[in-house]
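User: Show me an example of a complex going from sequences to structure tokens.

Assistant: Sure. Here are the input components:
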Amino acid sequence: MDRFGQVSPGASSNEEAPAAATDPSSVLTALLRRAGRGDKDAFAELYDATSARVYGLAVRVVRDPAQAEEVAQESFLEIWRGSARFDPDRGSAVAWMLTIVHRKAVDRVRSAEAASRRDTTYQRRNQLIEHDTTADAAHASLEAHRVRSALTSLTEVQREALELAYFGGYTHTEVATMLDLPVGTAKTRIRDGLIRLRDAMGVAS
Amino acid sequence: MSDIHALSGAYAIDALDDIERAGFERHLAACADCRAEVEGLREAAALLPETALAAPPASLRERVLDDIDAVRPLPPVVAAPVSAPRRPRRRVAALVAAAAALVAIGGVGATVWHPWSDESSEAPTVTASDIIAADDAESWAETLPDGSSVEITRSAALNGAVVKTHDMSPAGPEKVYQLWLQHDDVMVSAGLMPSGPDNTVILRGDPATADGFGITREPAGGSDEPTQPPVALIDFAQA
């Protein structure tokens, strides 16, 4: 399957807005809180600022672009519905949003129907991404570069386990089997990998 | 570290099966360390999509914005909805009016003490509305330099007190607001404030016999006694 570093179709222009005086994370928090009060303009701004991450994650996990669109659409609706329940002191707005997206995407691939469909669409989607990579290479974000650098601090097995679980949507026991790890050790690799990523990126823990 | 603790990473990225997830969520309800770790690991995981950016078709934006037109955002989680206060005693009329305004403003975005953010398993037995509606309820309020406000309402008969905050700035990284009741010259912890600017928190301890109330900013997890000067201090002896 793909390595973390290979797929980079680039962000929408809005996502690439230069860092303003205001911290981008607090901008998203403010937009999400306004959305919680029913502010649709704020939600549209939030969409523009995050849609490349939301859709990119969905398409990476479910692979089929049509299903990924459905996952993204359902996710945004759930984000809107739950926006007043977002608690900024328990994490960033984008982490809260992407947790929702990831859960929906994983639920989708774990359903039997989707499992059979994703294999037949894998090839098609791979070609799509390759094309996008070339066209939008110039848009590769600075943040993506930082994340890829941070991922180099993981061991190979940590990175593989994390990738299979996060982007592959596999459970830790499935990951253990796929990587020929003793049962019960994949979860440790995943956790250790996330901790290294967290520490390398200086994410508040 | 217990074995179940090691599932935090897999839980954070949805890599548990349904049975494991249910088990870990039960564990989470009782383990503040795991809750904090899951939050941090989710922040880390949320960076991964930066490496998988893909612009969606333009039509998705229209569909999403159409969708939300028909859906009202859910109200914030409010554990103890505050009913309209009973006719206030003259002495606290202004404060209760302020409280009513706070309730009106706080209706959106306010958070209330919630099992998830509760650091202990002992749930207060009186509700915020019980205290506010009590015949002997008294209120004190303080506006802080940053414009945020703190209001405490105490019922000696119920031995209960409820604190409301409005627009509190975050305590800061690795910090938490801790609530204190002063007995003689000793500050006794009355619990930790959940995160967020607007909170309604029922104090632990014995508010009926306390002389005052204070809030300090403490390291995450709280302290046994105040280690910082108070950000708010209210003397119950003052009207």
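The lines above are the inputs; the final block is the predicted structure for all two components together. The longest helix of chain B spans residues 32-45.
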